[in-house]
Amino acid sequence: MKSILITALALAGATNALGYTKISTDGAYDTPLFLTAPVGDSRLFVVEKGGVIKVQQGGAVSEWLNLSGQVDTAGERGLLGLAFDPGFSSNGRFYVDYIDATTKNTVVASYTANSLGVVDPTSARTILTVAQPAGVSNHKAGWIGFSVADPGQLYIATGDGGGGNDPSNNAQNINSNLGKLLRVTPGTDGGYTVPANNPFVGTAGNDEIWAIGLRNPFRNSFDRQTGDLWIGDVGQG
């Protein structure tokens, strides 16, 4: 017990020495699912399940993009992912992953912010869609991201579509984009191309697939030093 207490006090002292400041944002967010920031940017961008992205700088929180009118939020659906283009500081481009309110399918789209940081809603360009099983609202994954070790390639995590024990065996089906990690090169005006070194290019299986056998890899992260990808899954792949 003494060692635990001493360690705790030491950590508390270290925290104070670094000058952390507590900032209260009580009531500022509604069902936040994810936060991220562009490289070299002091702002935090927070994704809310209901379809809103908010930006926080210090204690100030403001709405940055509102997609609530086009996002389905039943079950595990919603606005699920956000990733900034590696060139965001110059091109203003970023990507979102959500479940469409009309089709109930996964949509990955790009948007562009101007030099003042204001997002133009009409800049939306669909990069990729993934069909989801009808009537099932769980296991929609949603994480998207770029690796500093693999510039230009967008990684997209998809769930198996839902239902206990993956009843349709989507995660192991190399002709389905469900239950996978996809890897594509997004187009600047929408759409995508497939990197030639994806594992199923030139052979049986969907070209977009980079990894199979995933249940619901909802949150993942690239190690910025090694480039390794750490996947947070729920099993049953």
CATH fold-level assignment: Neuraminidase
Annotation, overall tally of beta strands = 15
How large is the share of residues in beta strands? 25-35%
| Straight-line distance between termini | 41 Å
Write down the overall mean pLDDT.
92
Helix content: under 10%
Give Rg in angstroms. Answer: 19 Å
- What pattern of helices and strands is seen along the backbone? HEEEEEHEEEEEEEEEE
Domains, number: 1
CATH superfamily: TolB, C-terminal domain
Quick recap of the structure?
This protein is mainly beta and 237 residues long.
Q: Would you give an account of this structure?
A:
9% of the residues lie in helices and 35% in strands. It has a single domain, classed as Neuraminidase. β9 and β10 form a beta hairpin. The strands form four sheets. Strands 9, 10, 11, 12 and 13 form a five-stranded antiparallel sheet that branches. The protein has a four-stranded antiparallel sheet with strand order 1-2-3-4, with no helix packed on it. Strands 5-6-7-8 form a four-stranded antiparallel sheet. By secondary structure, it is mainly beta.
Task: Output the keywords.
mainly beta, Neuraminidase, four-stranded antiparallel sheet, 2 helices, 15 strands, disordered N terminus
Chain-wise SSE layout:
Elements: H1 2-18, E1 32-36, E2 44-48, E3 52-57, E4 60-66, E5 79-84, H2 88-91, E6 93-99, E7 106-113, E8 119-130, E9 144-146, E10 154-157, E11 181-186, E12 192-193, E13 209-211, E14 219-222, E15 229-232
Antiparallel strand pairs: 1-2, 2-3, 3-4, 5-6, 6-7, 7-8, 9-10, 10-11, 11-12, 11-13, 14-15
